[in-house]
Amino acid sequence: MINVAILGYGTVGSGVYRVITDNNDVVKKSIGEDIRVSHVLDLREFPGDPVMDVLTHDYDEILNDDSVSIVVEVMGGLEPANTFVRKAIEAGKSVCTSNKALVAKFGTEILDLARAKGVNFLFEASVGGGIPVIRAINESLTADHFDKIYGILNGTTNYILTKMSDEGLSFDTVLKDAQDKGYAERNPEADIEGYDTCRKIAILTSLVYGRFTDFEDISTEGITKITNNDMIFAKAADMSIKLFGLTEKNEKGTFSMVAPFLVGRDDPLYSVNDVYNAVNLHGDMLEDVMFYGQGAGSLPTASAVVGDVVELAKNKGKVLPFGWSADKLMLSDVNEYETAFYVRVNSGDASAFKNSFADVKCIEAPEVTGEVAFITEKMSKTVLTARLRDIEPLQILRVN
Question: Other C-beta atoms within 10 Å of 360: how many?
Fold first, then answer.
């Protein structure tokens, strides 16, 4: 019998409880023995909910129960999650989590602690919700050198950008709609300013390159400055605007960033819309491979968490080769990363702009008056800024 304790009975925790109990036959078949949720930790009461049979308010009850071999942390935040996870590992219990903030900040330390204690720490659901990209990187895509990984890693921002593009609505209007539908928090800063995506691309980068990537070193900008005119010009160019988390390794260095990008129809992420997420990896042998699915929500995320539970149960007593070293990955200045750029300027600056760039594509959008947009040739942000000189652009976005 595999006994599992769940820390937190919110959206994801209740989903994990439901998946293990409702699909117990499927999970049992994968593991090869019985599995049950023996404890659920939460400060609240849930009258009438079957979870009351296993609910506890005392974490020591879980720590001191030797029959509990797997702890699922789905509380979110850094504390007390960090303390609880470390205590579980110190007690000889393997842990899995959906907590990207915890993994991005303390993942290296927790992985080292787990190895020292002969147990495992897994976090498939911390990136991309139900998309199994972490396990694929760790198990299936081990024969390639990856030079680029990028993706839509936040459903809230993707929903907002999709609605702005499809319906011509303002950012503020769509944000309120997203909050009303539960896609965005009352305080949406982590999503719309790119911080959530930043932590996720840091985790993926650490895994792909096998070295700790500090999310605080990643250049991060969100979507709050995207306007309806940007959407109109993007459509006129047969492109869409997506918030990407991106890491690329080339002859000039290793670059990592979170930023809005314009993407054309030939990009596999062009048509990833609404709350869906997608991750694309480019390897030297495999070339491009994409993972697509629901990036959030109770059951998709819970499904990924239970996938980790199954992995832990199948590998009892075995330390999995997983994670990254404490050796820090040094990132290059993103201002030296070369892409094409979308630049929107006042019409009065159009002639000066053309004179400053040898090769530009003008985007025609008759419905926008007083403004012109261009797509430049490939260059660094440093070069772009120097060439703009006295021109004050209304918007600058990278083009993938």
Answer: 16
Alpha-carbon torsion, ordered 199, 202, 206, 208, to 10 deg: 110
Q: What DSSP letter does each residue of 49-103 carry, written as one string?
A: -GGGGTEES-HHHHHT-TTEEEEEE---SSTTHHHHHHHHHHTT-EEEE--HHHH
Confidence band of 393 (pLDDT split at 50, 70, 90): very high
Beta pairing partners, 236: none
Residue 131's SS3 state is coil
With a cut of 80, say whether residue 143 has pLDDT above it: no
Please tell me the distance from the alpha carbon of residue 217 to that of residue 340, in angstroms, as a whole number: 23
Quick: pLDDT tens for 9-59: 999 999 999 999 999 999 989 898 999 999 999 999 999 999 999 999 999
Residue 64 CB partners (closer than 8 Å, separation 6+):
none
Mean predicted confidence (pLDDT) in 65-72: 98
Phi, psi angle pair for 77, to nearest 5°: 75, 175
Alpha helices for the chain (secondary structure H): 11-22, 24-31, 59-63, 81-90, 100-117, 133-135, 155-167, 171-180, 189-192, 195-209, 228-236, 298-314, 350-356, 381-388
Question: Which tens digit of pLDDT belongs to each residue from 231-257?
Answer: 999 999 999 999 999 999 999 999 999
Return the pLDDT at 130: 83
State the DSSP code for 237: T
Active-site residue list: 200
Angle between helices 228-236 and 155-167 (to 10 degrees): 70
Angle at 324 between CA 323 and CA 325, to 5 degrees: 140
Contact predicate 222/188, CB 8 Å = no
Would you call 145 helix, strand, or coil by DSSP?
coil
Can you tell me which residue has the tokens 């702009």? 353
pLDDT band at 359 (very low <50, low <70, confident <90, very high): confident
Q: Taking 80 as the threshold, does the pLDDT of residue 297 lie above it?
A: no
The type of residue at 289 is V
pLDDT digits (tens, 9 = 90+) for 76-109: 999 999 999 999 999 999 999 999 999 999 999 9
Cα of 145 vs its chain's centroid, Å: 21
In angstroms, the CA 264 to CA 259 distance is: 16
